[in-house]
Amino acid sequence: MKVFFIGFGQAGGKIVDKFIEYDKRTNGDSFRAIAVNTARTDLMGLQHLDFEDRVLIGQTTVKGHGVGPDNDTGAQITFDEIDIIMNAIDRKGIGETEVFIIVSGLGGGTGSGGSPVLARHLKKIYKEPVYVLGILPAPEEGRL
Ligand SMILES: Nc1nc2c(ncn2[C@@H]2O[C@H](COP(=O)(O)OP(=O)(O)O)[C@@H](O)[C@H]2O)c(=O)[nH]1
Ligand SMILES: [Mg+2]
């Protein structure tokens, strides 16, 4: 199946980076992806996504430092800068994409706050189904 992944936040970006690594290693040509984050260092830490497919949002508000666990801010920045994300998807091109999958850790701020906003928007624009793969925090991460 042809999948367009959006890795949202740190955990989401890392997981999608691995999917792209797998696709390249197996000559799959099934996956395409972008990573979206408010934290510049998290985007820079990825290994397999092209740099042009790493999208930094919230630069005017959090200046590349991320939103910590504040998912309200993650949602607000995503809402305000949805065009930047949609343009990145456009630039990549959806090609033969059959499904969108947004991947995010649910214990943080950027991915957990931004994913529902992005999912809603993608559903408005594209006819392909939109899924979210959310990763629950481990019990030892406490109240978060
Ligand atoms: N196991 C594991 N969990 C991670 C990793 N990176 C982030 N997380 C978890 O992802 C969750 C959300 O955090 P994060 O993705 O950093 O938030 P965001 O960047 O604000 O979306 C938390 O529960 C973190 O513990 C990782 O490399 N491995
Ligand atoms: Mg983090």
List the SSEs and their pairings:
Blueprint: E1 3-8, H1 9-25, E2 31-37, H2 40-44, E3 54-56, H3 59-62, H4 71-80, H5 82-92, E4 99-105, H6 110-125, E5 130-135
Parallel strand pairs: 1-2, 1-4, 2-3, 4-5
Helix pairs in contact: 4-6
Guanosine-5'-diphosphate binds at residues 9-11, 14, 42, 104-105, 107-112, 137, 141.
Protein model, in words:
The protein is 44% helix and 20% strand. The protein is α/β, with parallel strands linked by helices and 144 residues long. The protein has a single domain (12-136), classed as Tubulin/FtsZ, GTPase domain (Rossmann fold, 3-Layer(aba) Sandwich). Strands 3-2-1-4-5 form a 5-stranded parallel β-sheet, with helices on both faces. β2, α2 (40-44) and β3 (54-56) form a beta-alpha-beta unit. The model has no long low-confidence stretch (mean pLDDT 96). The structure holds guanosine-5'-diphosphate (GDP) and magnesium ion. Guanosine-5'-diphosphate is lined by residues 9-11, 14, 42, 104-105, 107-112, 137, 141.
As for the CATH topology, it is: Rossmann fold
Small-molecule components bound: guanosine-5'-diphosphate, magnesium ion
| Helix/strand/pairing category | alpha/beta
Using only C-alpha atoms, the radius of gyration works out to: 14 Å
Got a strand count? 5
Number of helices, where a helix is a run of at least 4 consecutive DSSP H or I residues: 6
* Terminal-residue CA separation: 34 Å
Poorly predicted tracts of residues: none
Order of H and E elements:
EHEHEHHHEHE
> Average pLDDT, to the nearest integer?
96
Oligomer: single chain
The CATH architecture designation is 3-Layer(aba) Sandwich
- Bin the helical content: 40-55%
Number of domains as seen in the coordinates: 1
Strand content: 15-25%
Question: Which word captures the global form?
Answer: globular
Largest sheet: 5 strands, parallel
Class, according to the CATH hierarchy? Alpha Beta
Spatial strand sequence of the major β-sheet: 3-2-1-4-5
**The CATH H-level homologous superfamily:** Tubulin/FtsZ, GTPase domain
